[in-house]
Structures are given as C-alpha cells and as structure tokens.
Design goal:
Layout (H helix, E strand, L loop, with lengths): L12 H4 L23 H16 L3 H13 L5 H10 L2 H8 L5 H9 L3 E3 L2 E3 L11 E4 L7 H4 L1 H6 L7 E4 L4 E4 L14 H9 L2
Antiparallel strand pairs: 1-2, 1-3, 3-5, 4-5
Helix pairs in contact: 2-9, 3-4, 4-9, 5-6
Amino acid sequence: FLKGERCFTSKCSFEKRSFAPGMHGKSGSRSRSATGRESDFARQLRAKQKARRVYGTMERQFRRYYESAQKQRGVLTGVNLLQLLETRLDNVVFRLGFASSRAQARLLSTHGHFTVNGRRTDVPSMQLNPGDVIQVRDGSRDATYFKELGDFAEKRNFPAWLNRDLKNMTGTVQRLPERAEIDGNLNEQLIVELYSRR
C-alpha cells in the first residue's frame, strides 16, 4: 500500500498494471519471449531464488547443497535437495515451534541456545540426521524468551517427521521428511533443470 488510500480504489497502479515498471516492463524484458511468456530460464531462476529466500541460504551454500543432493542415493535430486534444506538446525528449530521464523531460529542457533545430542552448537546450517535430539541449553532456559516459549509453541503444529516435548524443551528428528511434508510452493524440478543446464 505504497500509494495510501488510492490503493483501495480502482485507480490503484498496482491493480491496473500487471507488468514490471519501467520502459522494458511490458515488451522489452529479457526474461520474456516475443509472445510475452516468461522464459524457461527465468522460471527456473525464480524457483531457485525462492528456495534460497525461504531457507535463508547464500548462493554458494545453496550450490553445495545441490551438489550433495546429486551425490546422495535416491530417485530424485530435487527431493534430496529439499530434505537437506529441511534438516538444517535452524529450520528444525523453526519447525519445532521454538522460533517464530527461520531468521529468528538462525539467530537463536548462532547465539548457542541449543544443544544437539548434548553438545552445544552455534552453527545454524548444521545438518541433522534421524535420531538427533535438539534441546534448549540449560543456561538459556532462564531467559525470558524461553520461559514464555511454551504458550507460543503450543499453538504451533509440528510436522510428523519431528517429535517435540515442550515440557523438557526438546525435539527429535525421527526420520527424513517426505516430499508431501515439505512446502508445496517450492518447485524443485525447476531448480534441478537450472543447475543441469550449466
């Protein structure tokens, strides 16, 4: 609502125009073909950027996840990639309901508020495996945030591949997530197509 009250009327510029601003927005865009359709490369790049933004990874780090996913056994590289991203420590903390967003989960992890299998860690990108136990560190339990965490976390659902114990402030990775349990808005096939063209 950058235009204020005007956006509540039919004169809103965002409603009238469905193309990017600027002189190249309607016809001369490089990402669109002559027919006005978005090119394959643009769709693939957008899918990758969306996944990067959702999980909060940098380009080089995301590329390493893709290369690891390629080397793993399994039918689909794209599903392997999403499983690697889902089992990062910061994402698991978010999924368990110990943080309201992945960015907050990353910050809490970086500050060393969690232990994995009894060992303190401050690496939000740490890869977790089935059987790993995540727990709020004893020294952090007295913090106001973690004292009030129970009420907030109870309202949040957690996926079936995780197990949560709010009383002890612990969570366990029971298994790797299946594709149906991962965000359906992400299109991993387009990401694989993008990296295979290089």
